[in-house]
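Second attempt. The first submission of Aconitate hydratase A had a stray character pasted in from the spreadsheet, which I only caught after the job came back as garbage. Lesson logged: always re-copy from the clean sequence file. Corrected sequence (749 aa) follows.
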Amino acid sequence: MIFDIDIIRKVYEQLPEKIKQVREALQRPLTLTEKVLLTHLSDGVPIKNYKRAGDYVNFAPDRVAMQDATAQMALLQLMNSGRTKVAVPSTVHCDHLIQAYKNAEADLETANITNREVYEFLRDVSNKYGIGFWKPGAGIIHQVVLENYAFPGGMMIGTDSHTPNAGGLGMIAIGVGGADAVDVMAGLPWELKMPKIIGVKLTGKLSGWSAPKDVILKVAGILTVKGGTNAVIEYFGEGAKTLSATGKGTICNMGAEVGATTSIFPFDDKSADYLEQTSRKEVADEARKIMEHLQPDQEVVDNPEMYYDQLIEINLSDLEPHINGPFTPDAAYTISEFGEAVRKNNWPRKMEVGLIGSCTNSSYEDLTRAVSIVKQAGEDHVPVKAQFLINPGSEQIRYTAERDGILQVFEDAGATIIANACGPCIGQWKREDANDRKNSIVTSFNRNFAKRNDGNPNTHAFVTSPELVAALTIAGDLCFNPLTDTLINEYGKEVKLKEPTGFEMPPNGYEVKDAGYIEPALNGSEVQISIDPNSNRLQKLEPFPAWDGEDLTNLPLLIKVKGKCTTDHISMAGPWLRFRGHLDNISDNMLIGAVNAFNDKTNAVLDPETNEYINVPALARKFKSRGVGSIVVAEENYGEGSSREHAAMEPRHLNVKVILVKSFARIHETNLKKQGMLALTFVNNDDYNKVQERDKISILGLKDFAPDRNLTVQLLHADGTIDTFEVSHTYNEQQVEWFKAGSALNAMK
Ligand code: F3S
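This time the job returned cleanly.
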């Protein structure tokens, strides 16, 4: 058995009594988020009214999941932790390293050859430390977790920012960096800032072309990419009960796009049906017994404005299909506004590629609704104008969809079925005609940052529901609105596409021959792990040096970043994914996507010694070789996007000492702290403007570095003048210790 029913039973046996204790301690009704979080406090942590978005609290999650790109660094750190076996059930999923090029079979074969060393490392470390291993082709981490491990009322962390997908089944599931995963796998408490709670009340019922994806595309438009920071988004209301479990997963998945800590739905009949259909009837039965505890209290539902920090109301019956983009997932347009936006902004109108899949939208329901459109177009002799790529979310979905003839319909329409993996969602797409051409693509994915899909900064990527991707791919026209427009078929006749139809779950049940799971050895002590010292892909980690006890003085500026700086800008994916287990090699991509505020260029920063503009990593390496640290200055929501801790480890490795920004994205800020970096924020955002290209920058007050105590920054400008201002931080006592020890891992040891 893949999932552990005994652990779930234990959680459920204790849940009612624990919730009673929480209610007594807080003396008020509880949201679902509070029920799950406060029943997962670490041993000895008192139950009390923690300050939301203020207090750090220690938790004891039930599970850990890791994907192959982040697992390498997480497991390299686990090997340095002194533990012999993981303390909680954990899994590794090989999904990020498979490049989409020809088709599923050929691409998987290539991946197994090119990534052999990494896959063997992940498999062997999993085997040694008692971690379940999902081999390449088994599926995308979040779909596999939803199908096998997610359970209502549970708590998990995952080394991927879309871990919240499991919230679709009522789990608090949070994306973290590998160092956090190591804490939990090592049996240590896991620390999180107690989140605020944003309530989203859903009423009505979706119909026609509207899909669960449109709920989160609309929410993204309301909250923007920062609006969910340090908050859990809790959905509730009668409308929530009308959504399929996988549809709820889609909505929770994309909560990451507004920076939310996670998102969650209450347990309902649809969740129970999904659990039963995915071979977890025992979990469904146990959850049904405590159904009332897997909901927000009725008083909360009746008076949501009293218990949520922010309330959003969406009537599903009125919800229009949305398309968001380009370049940011919060640029939301309804389908009726979108055509006009395309024309007005001069976005390339020709729709070149439609992509359906990713962890966001690759469920059976997604595929059946999209295929209903494709089938209809075929029957009405409407040709498919754009290239079409489909990636099923898991081998179970792929096998079932093949059995049910769904994949054949896509293929008959000219679509290519690519591997059950991330592929183009993470830049693992060998798109032959990408170049730097301005062009448009439409995906059912979650992210659309520049270069994210094909490495081309001029690809305008838009995200929408799978059914709309299908319609736009058929039309080959970004301005096509299937609700109002018609297409011309091969005989010159006008055809109007009918509304999509689909199945939430396969009418004949899910089926799979080889799901791709490898159980670890019961006793892995004999398993040997070897890392070739000459490897390009893997490198043993050396501990980072401890703080020397002195203020940081006269640091040269490495780069002052202008505008958006996501983890993709800091540590690009795509071809760089192959170095995720080799810190020195991957550091050559550090900040190469960030825009230099002084020349508006990427990867061109001033070397103050030669007065030439050179690459960012090259300048950092030059400073490092001389024993000089440096500093990065940036704007809002720095580190938005993924959980990859490489974005924190690379600067640490290249001797960057400080990241000073207007604001941080949550996961990235924690990742910086865990790696022993100084993550500081401007008290007054205008001070950003004072930083000049040739400044020597000092951070003063470190001897008294303590929670809630600001530090001082001194800028020594090239003309000899000085600017001084205060900067703040969010380090708690434990995190200050991480800084002093050089990293959280050093402090653990
Ligand atoms: Fe993979 Fe893209 Fe999801 S990279 S885990 S499919 S966000």
